[in-house]
Amino acid sequence: MRSRPPLTACSNAVVPVCLIAMLAVMALLTEPALAAPGKGPIVMAPHRAIYDMVLGDTRSGSSVTEVQGRMVFEITGSACEGYTQNMRFVTKMASAEGQPSMTDLRSTTFEDGGATTFRFNSSQLRDQKPGDQAVGDAQRTDRKAELTVDLSKPEKKKLSLGTNVYLPVQHSIALVEAGRTGQSRLKADLYDGSEQGDKVYETTSTIGAEVPPGGNKKLPEVKSAEPLNGLSAWPVSISYYERGSDKQDAAPAYELGFLFFENGVSRKLVIDYGDFSIKGDLKEITFLEPSPAGAKCTGAAK
Questions:
Q1: How far is CA 93 from CA 15, 104, 254, 278, in A?
Q2: What pTM was computed for the model?
Q3: Are 7 and 273 in contact (CB under 8 A)?
């Protein structure tokens, strides 16, 4: 079981790591896939979403007293073109022990439709000073083959991360397929280029009962979110562990929860670090026009 990153340095370490992981998950339902009985194919809507982030629950031992922030997430592309995801996440965090601190995280990733190529570039500012940066390319011959990574930053090196490792979009497809077929749990090794770009996480995802069409109408109204009204959704919780850890003896490093819809839009975000949590509410959404190639895309490599 991995030990959690130090919460006393949350604004410098924990939030950036977690939000890169969140970026990987936010690209849900991006590839047309085989439909479950009675369901259509899985197709995501290119979109730009804005979330307001605030402090959620605090528990005994937490020194965090306030969190304010905003995340802008955008995904474009298709199974034929590949998927480009851009995110910027800015948070201001206060604790009982010192002055407020600010973190500005920016991340761009690309994953091809066959889940064989993955590129990532993430950077952060901490109180307006340059912080960590991770840049690299991951490749493999097919989805179950050895995943190799060429890192450019923070230093040049080559990594071999093993077989049967999920890339972000590939993992997201597996999640929605599990939801559609009534599976409640999915375990997967996941690589998303986060931290120093050299880590594979063991993840355990819990998928709740399907929320039938109309569930979006019961949530706070968001302008231009009407397309969600006719879609099903699933509550999902993902626990992140270090690879090879003993998950029976300790809590995960963090957990990511959200409600996701069949077209790839997520609502009701929660990042839980154990001592405290951060909540994200969808405040604005813009559905983007697909590219000509994306509009004609009907499938992807399996």
A1: 10, 12, 18, 11
A2: 0.83
A3: yes
